[in-house]
């Protein structure tokens, strides 16, 4: 009997422990389910509700943040050098040959060449492009070995600020262009597509202009420009400068006669007026006489 009571008591304790464990499991499961119900709406919203897109007519707001956070490489100094020189020489051809040797030595080339030959002088005008690192050496070579320098004007223009400004704006425009292209892929209406395409076209035009400006500045910085004028004064070749007084007097008489002949020929060319004027005077006097009578 005693053994039976002990067995029943042991069975009762076992059942109590099982019920407690089941209650704990149910409580833990309920708590987990409650936490899932609380967390699940936000999780679903995060997955199914992305941030609304920007208006098509406006530029993406995040672009400014991206462009400001994006680091821009430092730009080296951009200096444009230009010069003008006028050199008097004794022989244009020899001076031109010497200039060609100096240009070859300094890796320069002639962009424009213009020659004038008038009664009193000869002029050879050359527009020369030279690598910026050889500009000073080229100027010194022309100053010392070509002829007598009549005038020289050298200038330097710092365009670093302009170059930096154009580069930054160009980078921002490229970011905007990529954003609009991404928006074009997701556009659903014809109006939105046309508006995005117009914005893309405008940005592409602005990017082309900016890139062209940067290329122009790079070319001017890389190659300096020199306007070189080779000048030769001619000795007067007039015939009157080589003859004596008697011959000059005869030439003056001849020139006077030629002038008189030219004047008479000019009068002859006015013969219609010489006929009309006397006729007009005759008719006017006749009319006046009749009126008095």
UniProtKB/TrEMBL annotation:
Pfam families documented for this protein: DUF4349
- The membrane-spanning stretches of this chain are 260-284
Instruction: List the residue ranges forming a coiled coil, or say none.
Output: 177-220
Domain named DUF4349 is located at 77-285
List the keywords (alphabetical).
Coiled coil, Membrane, Transmembrane, Transmembrane helix
Show which residues constitute the signal peptide: none
Q: Which organism is it from?
A: Chryseobacterium populi
InterPro entries membership: DUF4349 (IPR025645)
Q: Which domain of life is it from?
A: Bacteria
| Region entry Disordered, spans | 44-73
Protein name, UniProt field: DUF4349 domain-containing protein
């Amino acid at each position: 009997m005693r053994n039976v009571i002990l067995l029943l008591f042991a069975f009762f304790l076992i059942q109590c422990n099982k019920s407690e464990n089941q209650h704990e499991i149910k409580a833990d499961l309920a708590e987990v389910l409650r936490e899932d119900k609380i967390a699940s709406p936000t999780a679903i919203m995060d997955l199914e509700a992305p941030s609304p897109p920007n208006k098509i007519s406006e530029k993406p707001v995040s672009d400014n943040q991206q462009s400001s956070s994006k680091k821009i490489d430092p730009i080296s100094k951009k200096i444009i050098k230009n010069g003008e020189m006028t050199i008097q020489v004794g022989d244009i051809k020899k001076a031109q040959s010497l200039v060609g040797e100096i240009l070859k030595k300094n890796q320069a080339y002639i962009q424009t060449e213009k020659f004038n030959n008038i009664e009193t002088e000869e002029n050879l005008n050359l527009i020369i492009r030279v690598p910026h690192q050889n500009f000073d050496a080229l100027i010194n070579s022309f100053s010392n070995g070509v002829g007598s320098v009549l005038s020289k004007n050298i200038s330097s223009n710092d365009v670093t600020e302009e170059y930096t400004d154009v580069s930054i704006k160009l980078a921002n425009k490229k970011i905007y262009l990529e954003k609009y292209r991404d928006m074009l892929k997701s556009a659903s209406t014809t109006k939105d597509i046309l508006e995005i395409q117009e914005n893309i076209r405008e940005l592409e035009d602005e990017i082309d202009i900016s890139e062209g400006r940067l290329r122009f500045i790079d070319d001017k910085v890389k190659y300096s420009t020199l306007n070189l004028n080779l000048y030769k004064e001619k000795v007067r070749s007039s015939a009157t400068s080589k003859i004596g007084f008697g011959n000059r007097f005869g030439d003056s008489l001849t020139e006077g006669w030629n002038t008189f002949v030219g004047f008479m020929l000019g009068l002859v060319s006015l013969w219609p007026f010489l006929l009309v004027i006397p006729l007009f005077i005759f008719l006017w006097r006749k009319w006046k006489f009749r009126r008095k009578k």
